[in-house]
Structures are given as C-alpha cells and as structure tokens.
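To whoever is on call:

I kicked off a structure prediction for a single chain this morning and the downstream step that reads the tokens threw a length-mismatch warning. I double-checked the sequence; it's 920 residues and nothing unusual in it as far as I can see. Pasting both halves so you can look.
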Amino acid sequence: MTLFGLIGFTTPWLLLGLLALPILWIILRAVPPAPIRRMFPGVVLLLGLKDEEQVTDRTPWWLLLLRMLAVAAVIIGLAGPVLNPDNDGEVAGDAPLLVLMDASWASAADWRGRMIALDGLLAEAGRDTRPVALMRLTDPTPVQFLSADVLRTRLSGIQPEPWQPDAESTERAIGFLPETRFDTYWMSDALDREGRAPLLAALESKGRVTVFEAPRTLYALEPAQVSEGNLLITARRLRDGGTTEVTLAGHGKDPAGNPAVLTRNTLSFEAGMLETTTEIALPAELRARIERFEIEGTRSAGAVTLPDDSLRRREVALIAGSTDREGLELLSPLHYLQKALVPTADLLDGALLDILPANPDVIILADVATLSAAEEDAVLEWLDKGGMLLRFAGPRLAASDISRDREDPLMPVRLRAGGRTVGGAMSWGEPKSLAPFPAESPFFGLAVPSDVTVNSQVMAQPDPTLASRVAAQLSDGTPLVTRKAVGQGQIVLFHVTANAEWSTLPLSGLFVQMLERLAVSSAAAQPEIEDMEGTVWQPIRVLDAFGRPREAGTLPGVDGPDLIGSPLGPDLRPGVYQGEDRSLARNVVTADTDLTPMVWPERIPVQGIARPQEKPLAGWLLAGAIALLLADVIASLALSGRLRGAVSASVVLVALMLLPQDGQAQTAEERAAIAATSEVVLAYVITGDDTVDDLSLAGLRGLSETLYFRTSVEPNTPVGVNLETDELAFYPMIYWPITASQPTPSREAYAKLNTYLRTGGMIVFDTRDADIAGFGAATPEGRKLQQLAAPLDIPPLEPVPEDHVLTRTFYLLQDFPGRYVGREVWVEAAPPDAELIEGMPFRDLNDNVTPVVIGGNDWASAWAMDERGNPLVPLGSGFTGERQREIAYRFGVNLVMHVLTGNYKSDQVHVPALLDRLGQ
C-alpha cells in the first residue's frame, strides 16, 4: 500500500490516469455542444433576420469541470483509497506473517481492542496477499499459514484463557515454529515471565518481530485473608500510574437468593505504590455469603479473587462431661481443643439446649456419656440438617452402659464395657501406634508421626458395619476413629480422650490436621502438599479469562497435590474446588505471583494496541462519480432545451435511488437460518465421533432423496447441529445417534432441547446396538442414553402399538428395521382413555406428534447413500437385505410425514381408504 498522509492506495499505479485529465479537458473544450434543431416550414420568413440569442460553440467551463471531477473520482476510487491505513510498517513486505498472542488473563482486560487491531492487521495482510498464521501461547499448536481472509472469519472464536503461558508451553511453541522465514506480530500481555528471551530469539532468527502492548495499567487481586476477625484484601498494579482509586466490590447472594453486591470499598494507590491493602469488617453471616471480590471496570480473571472456607470461621460448640479441675488446665478435656480451634473458629459454650438454636456447625462432646431425651431429639434434628457431632471418649463414657446392647442413635458404633488399657504399669503390652490411614478415610494422605501412641481406648464391638465406619485404626487393627452418617450430617467418635491422658495424639500436629480434614476448623493458611495427598477435589465454579464465574459442569476432579502445587492450565482452571468436607479456592493471582512489566530490547519496536480504524473510500468515490455523471446528464439536457418538468422529476428520482444507502449484510447465522427455514431440513446431532457423524449425514441424505422422489416433500441438504450453539427450532426432526463417549450437554443445551420437544419437534434416539442387546442399559450406549435423557422432559413411553399412526402415515408398516432387525421402538404412550371404537381398526388417538422415538436398529446405516445414490452400508444378502433396506426407507418416510402432518391419519375421513388398503 502506498501512503499519502492519512490516505493510502491499494493500487496506486491507477492514479497515473489523473495525468490524462488536462488532455481530456482540451478535447472536450474543442468539441462544441450539439446544436438545437427546430422544424419550421416558413424558413424564408427568417432570411435576413438576426438572432439576438447566440448559442456558444464551446462547452461551458463549469460543465467541463463537472466531468473532470467525475473522471477523477472514478480513477481515485479504482485506485483503492483507504482512510487511516495501517502505516506502521509491521506488515510491510511479502513474507508470511505469524500473529503470536499471549492470550492470557492479563490480555482479557482490553481483548476487544486487540481483536480490532488484529482485524486491521489481517485486512492489510489480505490486501498484500500475505499468508498469516495464528498461535496462542496459552494453548500453542503447530503453525499453519492460511489466507488472511480465512482467519478473519475465525476471529470470533479466538478467546483468552484464565492462565498465563509457562516455560513448558513456551518451549512447545518454539518447537512448533516452521523452518521457513516469516515475520512476527506479537500481541503481548506486558508481563515478564520465564521463556520470553529464548522465544524472542527464535522468532528473530526467522524474520522481523513487532510487539504490541496496551499502555493501560493492569490490576490484580490477591486472595482475601482473615486477620483479627476482619478481611484483608491486597490489590496490585503492574505500573505506577500516579495516585489512582479503584472500587472493590464483593458479590454474593442476598437472603432471597438473588445475586447482589454485598459490599463496596474504595482502594487507593498512592503515587509510586504498586500495591495497597484494605481491611473490611463484615458480619459473619454476610461474610459467608460472599462468592467473589472483583475490581469494578476491569474485565480480567486476575482482578477477581474467589473466597473459600478459609474466610468463614466455623462456629464450634464445646461441651465437656466434667470441668471441675480448677487450676489443672492441661488436664481439662477441652484445653487442647480450645488451643487448636481458637485461631480458626468461633467457639460457643453453654448448655446443649441453649446452643442448638444458634445452629453451630460442629458440636464437640468431650467425655459426655448420656444425654436427656430432649437433648437427644434436638441433636438428631440438628444432625439431620447437616450438623457434625464430634465425640471424644473418656472415663465417664468407658464406665457407662451407652451403646452396649444396641447402637445408640448418637454413637457411630457399639462399644465394649470397660475400655482397654495398653502400655501401663499394670499391662503387659506396649503403647500402640497409629496405622496408616486407609484410602477411604478422610485422613488418607496424612503422615503418621512415630511418637503418637495410645495407652487407653474404648473398644468397638464387632459388627457387620464396623469395617465401613472405621476412619482410623491402631497398628493392631483396633478402631481409633469411627463415624456414620445421620441424615445430611455425621457423627464422629475418637476412641481416646481429647486431652493427653489416654494418648499423645492431642500433643501432635496430626491432631490439628485431623480436625481440619473433618472441617471442624477452617484452615486460614493454604494447606501443604503433604496434607493433600490422597484427596480428590471436584470443581464447583470456575472463572474464564474475563473473570466471569460459571458452573464447572462435567469438568473432572483434581488431585489434591496438583490443586496446590501445579500451575493453572487446561486441566486446572481457576475456581472453587470441593473436597470431602471443605472447599478450596484456586485463584489466578496469589501473594507469590510475580507481576513484573516486560522490558523489551531496544531493537524491538513496541507499539500500542489502539489504532485508528481503517475505512475504505472506494465506494463513496465511485458513488460520487455516478452522482456527478447524473448531474452532467441533467445539465446537458438543460442546455439543449430538452429538460421538461416530468422528465426532470424522473431524472431526480432515479438519481436519488442511485445514492448509496446504508445496509447490513447477512451474517452466516442468518444465512443458515434462512436456508433451514426455506425448505424442510433434516438434522442430526454432532457427537464428536467423525465416523458416526459422517454416517448420520449420509443416512439423512439418503432419506431426503427418498422423500424427494416418493413424496411431495422436497428436503434440502441435511445439516449437523451443535446442541450448545445452534438453534434447534428450524428442524422438524433431529436424529441423535448415541455413542458411549459423547459429551453430556450443558444446562443451557438441555433447556433448548426441552423447549424443542415441547413445541412440536421430534428427536429420534438411536443407540445402534440392537445386534447385541435389547432395550435397556445392557450396553455402554444404552447406559449413555439413560444419562443423556434423564434431564429431558420426556413423557411416558411404550413400544409402538399396532394401531399407532407411525404404522400408516404414508406406508402401512408393522416392522421398523434399520441395519438391524427386531429391536422394539418406543414412542409416547397413548392416553389412558384412548379406546378402540367398534368397527374401527385403530383407536382415536390425540393429534400430537410423539416428541421422541427411541430404538437401536441403526437406521442411519440403512438409509445411508453416497453422492451418486449408492448404498454405503451392506444389509444382509441378496433380496432379503434389499427388502430390509426398503422397509427402513419406508419407516423413515413415515417418521418425516408424521412429524410434518401429525396424527391426521387418525381422522375418520381416512377410514374407508385405510380399510380398503388393509383388505377389511
């Protein structure tokens, strides 16, 4: 592109035509205008007379100027003028162009501006016919150079990721670079990180490198912490932008369950400061409702922090069976519990019936043997709602008769009388150590210190359910911790005391870790990797790069050590993860995250993201040329005296019609919608299995051809639908082949499917397994069908009865084969009051279309045709196989006619013809 100030030209050599304008002026000036001719017979009367009005023998100068302007507008318009062209020179040359994008959470804040800049770059590369490739460092793939116009159509699908490139991904990106030379356009997120230097060196060895960064500063939030009952939140920024204020908003749900901003605070950055901390005092109830903190006005996952259970101080009630040991704190049943829980929980004390109305999270009974009937009923009701009852043994419990003959409702197991003493002065054995925690235990993965020993314990009675309730045991196999579920809550029993009388467990760090695993205390600090061994955490909510929370859906669980120690990536997204008894948040930015601005070498040109938007001017200039030529026609007619009122109005009207009008081109989605609704179109669900999807397309193509030649229905080419993104209402029938590995649709997709079924659409489910199983869950496909269909609003079903309208909508059928024969086909059950009228061959059913048809005969394989109309899948052998295929085609025709016409064949007007066809 050749530039002239703010205007560039894609084909500047055409401007040479402007040099011919002076010559054209001379030629037009030398040619006189056409004379005015008038027919008059009495010419002799005019002889000797002199006409006072003279007609010039030259074209007026203003008309010549009008024509020159029109020709100049045409020449300039054909030269491809562009206003505000991209004149920075980053796409100059003819070498291929690689667009490298960090595409991290730090890029999300100005992602729209990056896409506008990228679109302008691709437009310029397209004019220069330069191939372009795109690579995101957050998800590098092999470089593939394509036409710039092709990449422009894919811009809407390019999104940032809620993590940043690490050294491994950068190394993979270097390995994906081609051997040929190319120039690079690097859209940086302005953060310095490991691996930048070797990647830059590799790119420079291939060609010129131009870096683009946004000049705006970047804000980030560290996870909230609790200090003296208040929340401490630290905000950071990448560069010093002077004194600045930002607004911190805490989002959650109000008491009615509606999303709301529960708190809003102002954070101030002083000049020269890169971080600031604010202290927020919130009531415990309000703090428990907070779901995320974010910096308002910043669309980035780094500007969002998700809280977890560490912000919520659990309320724990401590009740001891005996507290009369004045001055002997170390022997108090509650001393070690208080020391372990005070930093992380709110402790409640008082009578049990007085504490229960406060609905504590945990109630701890230390050597409490017997409860009154009123207390027992109240505790059971509290447990049923999700509470946890944690009990410790002691002399009082060992001497009582509780849970001896029968299991007490507030004990997890039955107990033996008297307890057991080992390692004492009157015993022969040694103190017992703890055995490693089993895999099903909540303590699995915790290291067992060798100095933790047990001298005494209460013993559990052997019982068929005992093994399933043991959470920890001694080295000799006797239970140390048992538990059982009660409603939504649970009861846990430590078979030793809460003080050091019976064991050294309360003296060890393991005691605190076990309480944390039971969610009795909320760990204010991040757990260590060793503490997470053997645990699996399920994502509940995750963040995208723009900081928007969404449901985790079917994302897989994450191993505990990976949740703490692994970097964020496709397999570990920022969000809230749920363990067995607590939740843990993994945020984009932590206190250890290094936010350092990238300093590029002086040899690398660095430019801003924002740039003027290019505007092609060719259309306007050509339209102006047409308007000038119309004006020339009107002026010429006026000078020759041929312009009259009606003609003048017509010319003006035509000129107005030719003026450029604002219009909008149809989008690809609009064109697809028009194509789907202008004709009948059959659709199939894209499963992700290319073989199955190709066969579905071929099957519906064969069925469409059959409909075209045998019925008045003329279907268009079948299409595949993506349940997540495509509109379903355009298609009367959707064929859904079931594969064991296809993904489960999202909630939004199921909402669309239910709307489709409720508004007259029909889905044909085909498990394609009739050769190996009957209907049910005996095959992976059958089990997958049950899983997929569970959220759908499907009415009661029944096998197709002999008088169902599907047996006669177009062909009279009794069997519905596909590639396989014999599998029952299920449809919506007939109304209970549908009765067979005497003398009629079928019942008078409702006029609704069955919303689902379920079978496993693999109909698509039987319908499948290639482009020439030849069957793709062989059926049987000889005439038998072809007859089976013919019946399959007829069933497909009946399906489509049924969904298009409903149960019209049930009307009495068709009875004579049907009786005649049936031979009755």
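Update from on-call: the warning came from a stale cache, not from the record. Cleared it. Sanity check on the structure: The longest strand covers residues 259-269.
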